[in-house]
Amino acid sequence: MAVVSSPTGTQAIDRAALLLTQVIQGAEPASFTELAAASGLAKSTTSRLLTALERHQLVRRDPDGRFWPGELFVRYAWQGTADADLVAVAQPYLDQLGELTGETINLGIESGNTVQQVAQVDSRYMIGGTNWVGLAVPLHCSASGKVLLAFGAAAVPAEPLEARTERTIVSRTQLEVELSSVRERGFAVTDEELEPGLVAVAAPVFAGGLAAIAAISVSGPASRLGASQLPAAAANCVEVAQALSSTLGGQIEGAR
Amino acid sequence: MAVVSSPTGTQAIDRAALLLTQVIQGAEPASFTELAAASGLAKSTTSRLLTALERHQLVRRDPDGRFWPGELFVRYAWQGTADADLVAVAQPYLDQLGELTGETINLGIESGNTVQQVAQVDSRYMIGGTNWVGLAVPLHCSASGKVLLAFGAAAVPAEPLEARTERTIVSRTQLEVELSSVRERGFAVTDEELEPGLVAVAAPVFAGGLAAIAAISVSGPASRLGASQLPAAAANCVEVAQALSSTLGGQIEGAR
DNA sequence: GAACTCAGTTCCGGAATATGGAACAGACAG
DNA sequence: CTGTCTGTTCCATATTCCGGAACTGAGTTC
Fold first, then answer.
1. Confidence tier at B2 by pLDDT (50, 70, 90)
2. What does pTM read for this prediction?
3. Which residues contact B64 (CB under 8 A, 6 or more apart)?
4. Nearest by CB to B17, which of A18, A58, A88?
C-alpha cells in the first residue's frame, strides 16, 4: 500500500491510539467488530493491536467481548491526582481569560458544600483579589458556587444561608429563581453578595457528564466590573469555559 | 539485533505502552531523559514514541519538558464513569470473596456523608441480605462506613450520630477509639449496630493515594457470623481487598 | 446433526515501517 | 567562545508490522 497520510514513522502507534481513543471516549463499550469497522483497519491488525493494548491494561475486555477502559485508566481516575491534572490542563485557558479581562481568574470545584478554589491567575491591577487558592467560599453567594449549584455539581446545603453582606440571597426560593436564571444565561453573577465591593461572574466547565465539574470565575472590584463592563467579562468567561469543556470532552450545553 | 523477548509482533506498541505506563504511574512527572533511561530505549526511538503519544493526547508535556498524563486521562477521570468502571474491575474480586465466604458481599464508596453501595454479590443462603445497591447507609454504624472513616475517605459528620440499634456507637470519642482500632486491625466490624441481627466486616481498598477509595464488606446474620466464623471472614475480606488494591496500584498498608 | 454464518485469532510471505547511530540544533554554564 | 546537556531530525538498513487467507469455535438454521 502506498504511503498516503502521515510521514511520522509511527503508524502502529497512531492506529493503536486511534482504537484506544475510541474505547475511552465512546459512549458505549465497543465490540471488536465495531472498532475494526470504525477505524477501517484489517481484522487481523485490529486483533493484534487490541490484544497488545489489553496486555498493557490500557483496555479491558468483558466476558461479552466488549472493550472498556483498562485498569490503567481506572487506577488513574481513582488515584486522586486528577484534580492537580485538571489544573494543569485548565491553566492555559485561565491565562487566556486573564489576558482578555485583566481581572482575577479562579477555577473552583465543589468540595464539602463549598467552592474550593484550585487555581488562580492574578489581576493585572494593583487593586485585585488576593490569592484564593485553597480558600473555600460558600456556594450560595459566590458566582462559582451559583454555577456549581445551577449545573448539578452541588446541592443547596441544609443549613441556613449565611448573610455575608446585606445583598446576600438568604431565601431558598429566591435562590432557586436565581439558579434558574443562571441556567438560562449560562453564567452566574455575584454582585457584592459575598463581600462588599466584590463583583464576579462565573461559567460552568463540563467534561462529558451532565453535571458541571468546575466553574471558572472572573472577579474584581465593583468599580471595574460595573453594568457596562460586566457583559463583556461574562461573554469571555463563558467562551473560555466552553473551550476548556470541549477539550475535556464535555458537551457545550449553554442552557438547560 | 536478534529477536529476544516477545514474539508478539507489536514491538512499537509494547514500547509505547511501557513509556505511557511510566508516565501515568510515576510518582513524579518524568523528564525525557529519565524515561529513555528507565525504558532502556534509544533516544531517537523514545523521542518518536513520546511525540506520537503526545499527538494523541495520551501524555502532555509541560513547559519544562516533563511528561504528565494526557488530556485523554484527565477527561476520562472527570467524566464520571470511573465509578462504573471501578465496579467492573472489582466484580471478579467480589465474586471470589462471595465464593470464599458464601455471604453477601458489597462494595461501598463515600457519597454525601453516607456509604453508597455500588456493587453486590448475593449470599448463597436463603437468609441473606436483600439488594443494597443504590442504598446509602450511615458511616458510623456500618462496617464499610467505619473503614471509610478510619482510612481517610470520609469525615465524621457534624450531625449527632443516629442510634440505629441499642448497640450503635453514638459517642464521638467512643467512635474515635473504634476507628483507631480499625486502623490497627486493618478491618472494621459492625455487630448489630446498624440493624438487629446483622453482622458485617469490611476492609479498605486503596488506589495509590493515602486515603482509601472504597470498602469491601461481608455481611450476614449474627447466627452465621459469630465469634467463631468472623475472624475467617475478616481475613478473607482483607485479603481480597488487598488484591484489588494492588490491581489499582494502591500501597497495601495494613495499618497506620 | 450437518451445513451455514458470524466473531475473532493465527499464520505467513513480502514490503513498508520502525529502528538507532550519528549529525544536528538549542539552551545554558563557565 | 568552548563544553555540556537535552532533545530532535536524518537516513540506510532490516526488522517489524501488515493484511489476505486459512482456521477455530460458538451459535443458528433447516
1. very low
2. 0.83
3. B31
4. A58
Averaged over A80-102, what is the pLDDT?
86
Q: What is the DSSP code (8-state) at residue B199?
A: E
> Distance from residue A53 (CA) to nucleotide C4 (C1'), in Å?
33
* Sign of torsion over alpha carbons A30, A35, A38, A39: positive
Taking the CA atoms of residue A111, residue B162, residue B144 and residue B116 in that order, the dihedral angle to the nearest 10 degrees is: -50
User: Dihedral sign, CA of A181, A184, A185, A189?
Assistant: positive
| Secondary structure of A160-203 in HEC code, one letter for each residue | CCCCCCCCCCCCHHHHHHHHHHHHHHCCEEEECCCCCCEEEEEE
User: Burial of A54 by CB count in 10 Å (0-12 exposed, 13-18 middle, 19+ buried)?
Assistant: middle
Q: Residue B55 above 50 pLDDT?
A: yes
Q: DSSP letter at B163?
A: -
Question: Among residues 40-99 of chain B, which lie with CB inside 8 Å of chain A?
Answer: 48-49, 51-53, 55-58, 60, 62, 68-69, 71-82, 85-86, 88-89
Per the structure, the residues numbered 20 to 59 in protein chain B that have their CB within 7 angstroms of any atom of strand D are 31-33, 43-44, 47-48, 50-51
According to the model, what pLDDT value does residue B83 have?
76
In this structure, is the dihedral angle defined by the CA atoms of residues B73, B76, B78 and B82, taken in order, positive or negative?
Answer: negative
Q: Are strands A66-69 and A104-111 parallel, antiparallel or unpaired?
A: unpaired
Contact across the interface for A208 and B75, Cβ inside 8 Å: yes
For A73-97, what is the mean pLDDT? 85
- Name which of A18, A74, A87 to mutate to probe chain B: the one with the most chain B Cβ atoms within 10 A of its Cβ: A74
Contacts with A, B 102-121, CB within 8 Å: none
How far apart are alpha carbons A113 and A127 in whole angstroms?
29
Q: Cβ–Cβ of B89/A76 closer than 8 Å?
A: no
| End-to-end C-alpha distance for chain B, whole angstroms | 49
pLDDT digits (tens, 9 = 90+) for A130-158: 788 888 899 999 999 999 999 999 989 88
In this complex, do B13 and A16 lie within 8 Å of one another by their Cβ atoms?
yes
Q: What sign results for the dihedral spanned by CA atoms B202, B203, B209, B213?
A: negative
